[in-house]
Protein backbone atom coordinates (compact mmCIF):
# COMPACT_ATOMS: atom_id res chain seq x y z
CA UNK A 1 0.00 0.00 0.00
CA UNK A 2 1.43 3.36 -0.98
CA UNK A 3 1.01 6.48 1.11
CA UNK A 4 -0.83 9.44 -0.34
CA UNK A 5 1.54 12.14 -1.54
CA UNK A 6 1.03 15.71 -0.41
CA UNK A 7 2.84 18.39 -2.42
CA UNK A 8 2.80 21.03 0.33
CA UNK A 9 5.96 23.04 0.87
CA UNK A 10 5.23 23.74 4.54
CA UNK A 11 3.93 21.49 7.30
CA UNK A 12 2.58 23.26 10.38
CA UNK A 13 1.82 21.07 13.38
CA UNK A 14 -0.71 23.22 15.26
CA UNK A 15 -1.99 22.40 18.74
CA UNK A 16 -4.61 24.85 19.95
CA UNK A 17 -5.79 23.74 23.39
CA UNK A 18 -8.74 26.16 23.51
CA UNK A 19 -10.91 27.67 20.76
CA UNK A 20 -9.54 31.17 21.37
CA UNK A 21 -6.11 29.94 20.22
CA UNK A 22 -7.35 28.95 16.75
CA UNK A 23 -7.05 32.40 15.16
CA UNK A 24 -3.32 32.78 15.84
CA UNK A 25 -2.51 29.44 14.19
CA UNK A 26 -4.80 30.09 11.22
CA UNK A 27 -3.25 33.56 10.77
CA UNK A 28 0.26 32.07 10.52
CA UNK A 29 -0.93 29.58 7.90
CA UNK A 30 -2.77 32.33 5.98
CA UNK A 31 0.29 34.59 5.96
CA UNK A 32 2.48 31.81 4.54
CA UNK A 33 -0.14 30.87 1.94
CA UNK A 34 -0.47 34.52 0.88
CA UNK A 35 3.27 34.44 0.11
CA UNK A 36 2.66 31.61 -2.38
CA UNK A 37 3.43 28.68 -0.11
CA UNK A 38 1.28 25.55 -0.07
CA UNK A 39 0.56 24.85 3.60
CA UNK A 40 -0.47 21.60 5.25
CA UNK A 41 -1.93 22.32 8.67
CA UNK A 42 -1.77 19.22 10.90
CA UNK A 43 -4.43 20.30 13.37
CA UNK A 44 -4.39 18.76 16.84
CA UNK A 45 -7.23 20.68 18.43
CA UNK A 46 -10.97 20.56 18.01
CA UNK A 47 -11.84 21.55 14.45
CA UNK A 48 -11.71 25.31 13.91
CA UNK A 49 -14.97 27.14 13.35
CA UNK A 50 -13.36 29.77 11.12
CA UNK A 51 -13.01 29.04 7.40
CA UNK A 52 -9.62 27.85 6.21
CA UNK A 53 -7.49 30.38 4.35
CA UNK A 54 -6.90 29.82 0.63
CA UNK A 55 -3.79 27.72 0.03
CA UNK A 56 -4.13 25.89 3.36
CA UNK A 57 -5.12 22.24 3.70
CA UNK A 58 -6.32 20.99 7.08
CA UNK A 59 -5.23 17.52 8.20
CA UNK A 60 -7.07 16.74 11.43
CA UNK A 61 -5.13 14.74 13.99
CA UNK A 62 -6.95 12.99 16.84
CA UNK A 63 -8.08 16.12 18.72
CA UNK A 64 -7.11 17.27 22.19
CA UNK A 65 -8.12 20.17 24.36
CA UNK A 66 -7.92 21.30 27.96
CA UNK A 67 -10.51 22.47 30.42
CA UNK A 68 -9.81 25.88 31.94
CA UNK A 69 -10.40 24.40 35.39
CA UNK A 70 -7.78 21.72 34.77
CA UNK A 71 -5.00 23.57 32.94
CA UNK A 72 -2.28 21.25 31.72
CA UNK A 73 -4.52 18.16 31.67
CA UNK A 74 -4.69 16.95 28.07
CA UNK A 75 -8.13 15.60 27.17
CA UNK A 76 -9.28 13.65 24.13
CA UNK A 77 -12.30 14.67 22.04
CA UNK A 78 -14.64 12.99 24.55
CA UNK A 79 -13.17 14.83 27.54
CA UNK A 80 -11.17 11.88 28.90
CA UNK A 81 -7.51 12.24 29.88
CA UNK A 82 -5.29 10.87 27.11
CA UNK A 83 -3.47 7.61 27.80
CA UNK A 84 -0.39 5.88 26.37
CA UNK A 85 -2.36 4.09 23.62
CA UNK A 86 -3.95 7.37 22.54
CA UNK A 87 -0.53 9.05 22.40
CA UNK A 88 0.79 6.23 20.20
CA UNK A 89 -2.16 6.60 17.78
CA UNK A 90 -1.74 10.34 17.67
CA UNK A 91 2.03 10.18 17.01
CA UNK A 92 1.45 7.55 14.30
CA UNK A 93 -1.12 9.78 12.58
CA UNK A 94 1.34 12.70 12.45
CA UNK A 95 4.17 10.48 11.22
CA UNK A 96 1.93 8.96 8.51
CA UNK A 97 1.16 12.45 7.25
CA UNK A 98 4.84 13.42 7.24
CA UNK A 99 5.78 10.21 5.41
CA UNK A 100 3.60 11.36 2.51
CA UNK A 101 5.23 14.78 2.32
CA UNK A 102 8.52 16.40 1.38
CA UNK A 103 8.13 19.83 2.95
CA UNK A 104 10.91 22.42 2.88
CA UNK A 105 9.84 23.71 6.29
CA UNK A 106 8.25 22.11 9.35
CA UNK A 107 6.79 24.51 11.92
CA UNK A 108 5.98 23.16 15.37
CA UNK A 109 3.46 24.66 17.74
CA UNK A 110 5.38 24.42 20.97
CA UNK A 111 2.94 26.62 22.91
CA UNK A 112 1.11 23.58 24.28
CA UNK A 113 3.42 21.57 26.55
CA UNK A 114 3.17 17.81 26.93
CA UNK A 115 3.45 16.71 23.30
CA UNK A 116 7.02 15.40 23.22
CA UNK A 117 5.57 11.96 22.45
CA UNK A 118 4.83 13.14 18.89
CA UNK A 119 7.24 16.03 18.36
CA UNK A 120 10.44 14.13 19.14
CA UNK A 121 9.80 11.30 16.64
CA UNK A 122 8.73 13.82 13.98
CA UNK A 123 11.83 15.98 14.36
CA UNK A 124 14.13 12.96 14.52
CA UNK A 125 12.75 11.54 11.27
CA UNK A 126 12.73 14.97 9.60
CA UNK A 127 16.40 15.56 10.43
CA UNK A 128 17.36 12.25 8.81
CA UNK A 129 15.78 13.20 5.48
CA UNK A 130 17.89 14.30 2.55
CA UNK A 131 17.35 17.11 2.08
CA UNK A 132 16.20 17.73 5.63
CA UNK A 133 13.49 20.37 6.04
CA UNK A 134 14.14 23.43 8.13
CA UNK A 135 12.48 22.95 11.52
CA UNK A 136 11.05 25.96 13.32
CA UNK A 137 10.07 25.01 16.83
CA UNK A 138 7.90 28.02 17.66
CA UNK A 139 4.71 28.85 15.85
Question: Key features?
Answer:
about 140 residues; alpha/beta; five-stranded parallel sheet; two-stranded antiparallel ribbon; 7 strands
What can you tell me about this protein's structure?
The protein has one domain (10-136). It has 3 helices and 7 strands. The protein has helices at residues 22-34, 84-99, 116-128, and strands at 10-14, 39-43, 56-60, 64-65, 75-76, 105-108, 134-136. It is globular and about 40 Å long. The model has no long low-confidence stretch (mean pLDDT 90).
Q: How is this fold's topology laid out?
A:
Layout: E1 10-14, H1 22-34, E2 39-43, E3 56-60, E4 64-65, E5 75-76, H2 84-99, E6 105-108, H3 116-128, E7 134-136
Parallel strand pairs: 1-2, 1-6, 2-3, 6-7
Antiparallel strand pairs: 4-5
Helix pairs in contact: 2-3
In brief:
This protein is α/β, with parallel strands linked by helices and 139 residues long. The chain is built from 3 helices and 7 strands.
The strand line-up of the biggest sheet is 3-2-1-6-7
Number of strands: 7
Helix content: 25-40%
Overall, the morphology is globular
Q: Major β-sheet, in short?
A: 5 strands, parallel
Q: Which percent range describes the beta-strand content?
A: 15-25%
* Element-level helix/strand string: EHEEEEHEHE
The end-to-end distance, rounded to whole angstroms, is 33 Å
Whole-number tally of structural domains: 1
Number of helices: 3
Q: Mean pLDDT, as a whole number?
A: 90
Low-confidence stretches: none
Integer-rounded radius of gyration: 14 Å
Structural class: alpha/beta
